[in-house]
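Figure-free illustration: sequence to structure, shown twice.
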Amino acid sequence: MKHRVLENKVPEITALFWVSKLISTMLGESASDFSSQIFGQQNQSLGELFTVGWSLSLFLIFLYLQMWADKYQPIFYWNSVGLLAVFGTFSADTLKSLTGLHYAETTLIFFVLMLGFFIAWYVTVKGSLKM
């Protein structure tokens, strides 16, 4: 059976990567709040719905472009990261406001979800990991 060689589709993990990731998270927080504020002036629910819609749509477009690219494409990768930060930040804020849960509760929910996904990821790829 012939093995398919996959190109690396992520940037090299350096200090610059982590600074870029930090900035994309800050961008996500700022852009989601700004979008909700601007588009929700007349109706807050419509502003929130619009923000979720545009950020998720653009994230999926750039993620698709990066996934189907032959190699790492910075414009696709970093737009995906930034848009995911917008969508993720806004989704977390919306969950808290809709449910009335405390920040400690939503933090625990997202921690458990993240841990579960990391475990699932590890179980599915552990045979291909080289340490």
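We now fold a second protein in the same way, so the two outputs can be compared directly.
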Amino acid sequence: MPVEYDEELVEELKKTFAGLESPVKIHWFLDPDAECVYCEDTQQILDLVQQTSNNKVTVIKHVKSDPETRKYNIDMFPALLIHGVDEWNIRYFGIPAGYEFGAFIEDIVDASTGRVNLSPEIKEALLKYVTRPTRIMIFVTPTCPYCPLAVRAAHRFAMVNKNIYGDMIEALEFSDLADKYGVYAVPKNVIQIDGEDKLEFEGAAPDPYFVAQILQAYGVELPQKLQEQLAGLGSEEIEETVEDVHEHHH
């Protein structure tokens, strides 16, 4: 799955990155002892991002034994971690290719501005109720058109509350983990609190629904304003988006 790009994409990226406000660091974590099928392709993507960002994006490589690996709680390889105005847990396990490339670019822009497009009610709920290390694992494949929506949601939530780890996990590269969680359709979303699996659901859900799932994992009732947002979506819209899944075969 080599990364193919043309002049048009290069120009588009230059235009997008012209809006970067603060420098962005992408930490790339590798395990030198493990086979890495897509590392060359990932390197191509990172080179492209660096070149088109006018040096506003820097890539820093780490190996498994580096102190940064422990500092940032990186437990699987290869991994990418995006830092900008602040250090958040915006993480990619596996290659951000195919449909995920767009999410990767949007994350870089968000990290550079520090601004997140979420309703005040959602930000408030995430800050108030997510009080322990909470990992949102989004299993994806590069060919899944709905997956970036779920990944972006998890990453925006991670920018609101540092207890949240937003993890894109490429199901083909981490096939043992995907098997463990019975990933047959993507995006498959798993919510862990303190390392314990609490809840899982499939599909790219609207933000209020997604937050409702996180609060459910905490055993918290949804605040009134969020209930109203959820009611405003209508059950059909929720069913539709949550049914937006892509069959995953490996």
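Summary for the second example: The chain has two domains: 1-115, 116-243.
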